Amino acid sequence: MNRRHFGALHIVAACALAWLSFSVLAKPDVDGMIFADGFESAAVQFRGGSNLIWYDVDAACVAEPQAILTDYHEPGVRPRVLDTLAAMFGAGQRRVSVIIFHAHGGRANPDGTVNELVLDSTGGMLDKQFIYNLKQLLADIDAAGFEEVLLRFAPQWINNPQGWKDDAGFDEALFAENWSIVRNIRAEIAGSGISYRIDLMVEGLPRARIIAGQVIADRPDNEEWTEYAQRLWEKYVDAFGTSDTIGFSSVAGPDLKKVDARVEHLNTVYRVHGEIRRPDVIGVDLYPANGLDEGQFFTKWSEELDREGLTQLPIIIPEVFYDDATAAASLQSAMDQTRRAVPFLLQWPLQRGAGCYPGDPVTVPEPDSFQHYLRHGF
User: Fold this and answer.
1) DSSP output for 247-295
2) How far apart are CA 182 and CA 57, in angstroms?
3) Which of 132, 187, 196, 288 has its C-alpha lying 20 to 30 A from 213's C-alpha?
4) How many domains does the chain have?
5) Which CATH number belongs to the domain containing residue 91 in this structure?
6) Residues forming a β-bridge with 113
């Protein structure tokens, strides 16, 4: 769901021990192992949670002026977020996603922002205030009892490599800036003491070209985007290995053929000096599209991974509609059918049918309800 460019389980027994090594400094989530409807379903999962980005919502779903990272040092914001964290934890959530929205702003704004949500990444580093805000937020998430953070990078506008195809081609300076942001911000979360995993780009997995209905696995649909992903992945793996990252998360579709094109392109993206080195787990944001529901997309992803021989590759779900009974039921059914390992699920603070998309996609200022996902074992 590419709306972040606005104005921008159950693990099967054979995979359970493997997942314990997936998450840096992971704490076993014994209390989070629950089953839908009181009986054992597809597999055991780690307790999920929410994407935590905003602390308030304006009329008409506008939330940009209330971004947590931007305002965490402002009076009254941190206490409000602490209350939200406590409510989320009390509702059974154990994982949180934090997103770094950034773009090259040339330091035009003295406060270090590009707008109310997007931080200025000129020079490959954020303003010191926002680094402090991030450190404080991570410490507060940890202190509230949460067990893991998914840190996600979301380069915007000219920093988003998806658009370089239509501009002047691959931008070396912006690639270097984005890599510097990843490297520098990773150092902050790695030093925070909390278990974490990194998404190198929100919905940033490119796909193969489709010609006359056929997927050409090693030919990029967008050459600049694939080159960006290949090179960033190689740099990341050279520097840090694969154990703390999901690589580049992906959209679900928006149709079944494009699922094929993304899965068949994995071995092109995840190469390091000619050797295939995939992440230990991937991430797919699951929303309905073109008459297909979340469970149907999940099933298609699992089937295509099976065809590529990746039967044991787990899928994290970084985004779904907020506390949604339909999504929860369809995903549980798909997991039962495919037996695909899903370490955890994170909800996005947008309710199904809210009418906000393609505007600012948020309707819930405090994502403290998780009951429908809990009922289905998430």
Assistant:
1) ES-B---SSHHHHHHHHTTHHHHSEETTEE---SSEEB----BTTB-HH
2) 28
3) 288
4) 1
5) 3.20.20.120
6) 119
